Hints:
- With 139 residues, the chain is mainly alpha-helical.
- The chain has helices spanning 4-41, 44-49, 51-91, 96-105, 110-117, 122-138.
- It is elongated, with a radius of gyration of 22 Å.
Amino acid sequence: MITVEEAKKELREYRENIKYIREKQEDVEEIRETLVKTTTRLSPTKSSNNSMSTDKFSDGLDKIEAIEKEKDKKLAELLIKKFVIDEKIDKLQYPFRDVLFMRYSRGKSWRTIRDELGYESDNHIFKIHGKALQLYAEL
Length: 139
């Protein structure tokens, strides 16, 4: 059993880790796109006469590899936490389970959660969230 504050912290870290993984994946894709654009602009004569261009390409590949290794390491850590947190959330009943899942697993806004669950008041969702955190902390 943990405190409500510890539960909040655990769930927020989980949400931030998911964002981190997505951002790292976007970094990899951005670098790949840049490398593809660069290689299509280089002719065989330019690349063979200019070692600087091939060095930049090589550096780009090294950067992608480093980012992917870091991302994979973080992903492995996140997956372990994800399974533990998902299992705890799944033990809760509706609507508590749904509020925590939508907010922390999916990163949805309070307004979106309110609308998807069919409530009219933000305060009602906040009360459900508070109770959900208490129940989560007791697991």
